[in-house]
Amino acid sequence: MRGIGMVAAGVASLSLLTACATRNAPLEPLQKARAAVSTAMNDPKVVQLAPLELKNATDTLSKADNAWTRDADAAEATHLSELALQRAQIAQNVAQTRQLDADIKQAGVNAERQRLEGTAARAQMQAEQARAAAAANATAAEQARQQAQAAQAQVKDLQGQLNDLQAKQTERGLLVTLGDVLFEFGKADLTSQAAPRLDKLAQFLAEFPSRKLLIEGYTDSVGTDAINQKLSERRAAAVQSALVTRGVAPDRITVRGYGKEFPVADNASPEGRAMNRRVEIVIADENGNLRSRR
After folding, report:
1. For the residues of 235-277, what is the DSSP string, one character each?
2. How far is CA 19 from CA 10, 14, 23, 29, 71, in A?
3. Could you tell me how many helices (H) and strands (E) the chain has, helices first?
């Protein structure tokens, strides 16, 4: 009996030593996962553009480390390591995709800026040519001066209108956003604060009568889908009605409501919900391009 006890004790000691050796031995899948996650963490674009995906990768790697160093569970550690590796690669891919999207949007903004700068340059050239041609005739010179001033004023006025409207160029067209503060709470009635903004928008549209526009209503996620859908449609229609009364032709306007769809911020916070309660006006570019959501 004493011999059996000694054998059992020896086996237990050997098992303990084996477990310790296993924990200290390198696990190739875990090493690869650590390298991949480290690469992703040291990439500023991944940190900035794919933070949630990167956190998933680091959390999974931590679980893999625990499975190996604490539990000596090679199978579980291997599975979690492979998952962490995949999630690190996903974070890098997501960051690359989002950077590409940002580059495309910036290219659109740059193109619009170049177009405006080109318009200003052409107007300036026309002004110089007009002044030179009018040197021999005082009446013609005065007319040329007035035309040059008008051309320069038009370019300056156009840029000023875009700034006043807080418009930005997107792949869908020129985007103007009206916030929730311009409506009565929970209603589709426009407040008095909306009038100056709509006046400026109508004035801009009057200068470009061939451009079509979309008016799209959105809500936050509070309330039922049916209520939110109806409210988004009514608010978009209210903006349409306000523009029509200001001289915008009805056949230029398409109205849609999307309810809580296409949020621009997280609905978990009051600030995010306020940003999601909006009406977006998308204006066709100079070539008539206008893209709807669907």
Report:
1. HHHHHHHHHHHTT--GGGEEEEE-TT-S-SS-TTSHHHHHHHS
2. 14, 9, 6, 19, 9
3. 9, 5
Is residue 233 within 8 Å of residue 217, measured between CB atoms?
yes
Where does the chain show beta strands of DSSP type E?
168-170, 173-179, 213-218, 253-257, 278-283
Radius of gyration of the chain (CA): 32
How would you class 262 by CB atoms within 10 Å of its CB: exposed for 0-12, middle for 13-18, buried for 19 or more? exposed
CA 192 vs CA 189, 195, 198, 242: distances in Å: 10, 6, 10, 12
The predicted structure's pLDDT at residue 191: 87
Report the candidate in 185, 162, 182 with the shortest Cα–Cα distance to residue 174. Answer: 162
The gap from C-alpha 234 to its chain's centroid, in whole angstroms, comes to 25
- Decide: 130 and 148 in contact? Cβ < 8 Å: yes
Residue 179: name the closest of 163, 190, 168 by CA. Answer: 190
Give per-residue pLDDT as tens, 69-88: 998 899 999 999 999 999 99
Cα separation, 239 vs 198, in Å, equals: 8
pLDDT of res. 171: 87
**Which letter does DSSP use for residue 137 in this model?**
-
- State the pLDDT at residue 5: 41
Please tell me which residue, 134 or 224, carries the higher pLDDT value. 224
- Produce one character per residue of 148-173: b if its CB has 16 or more CB atoms within 10 Å, e if not: beebeeebeebeeebeebebebbebb
- The amino acid present at 288, given as its one-letter code, is G
pLDDT band at 282 (very low <50, low <70, confident <90, very high): very high
